[in-house]
Amino acid sequence: MARAIVTNPSMLLADEPTGALDSHSTEEVLALFDALNADGRTVVVITHEDEVAAHAGRVVRMRDGLVVEDRSNR
């Protein structure tokens, strides 16, 4: 994560960033993403975890390469 954000990118792509983490570490990662987003960065998280997706401002669900849902959480 540090390597991904050290260059101050305008967009961060995170593929299953919480997949192997315990619940406390997951909350820390999501809080970091919130802070980055509050600073104006776009954060795209790819996940299979409904709890992580529920944390996002927008959720786009795909099935078989097609968008089956696109909704705002805020």
Distance between the termini: 26 Å
Low-confidence stretches: none
Biggest beta sheet attributes? 2 strands, parallel
Report strand order across the widest sheet. 1-2
> How many structural domains?
1
Shape: globular
User: Regarding quaternary structure, how should these chains be classified?
Assistant: single chain
Order of helices and strands: HEHEHEE
Cα-based radius of gyration, to the nearest Å: 13 Å
- Average pLDDT taken over every residue: 94
**SS-based structural class?**
alpha+beta
Relative helix content: 25-40%
- Summed up, the helix count is 3
**In total, how many beta strands?**
4
Could you explain how this protein is built, in words?
There is one protein chain. With 74 residues, this protein is of the alpha+beta class. The protein has a single domain (2-72), classed as Rossmann fold. It contains three helices and four strands, in the order H-E-H-E-H-E-E. The chain has helices at 2-5, 23-38, 50-54; strands at 11-15, 42-46, 58-63, 66-72. The longest helix has 16 residues, at 23-38.
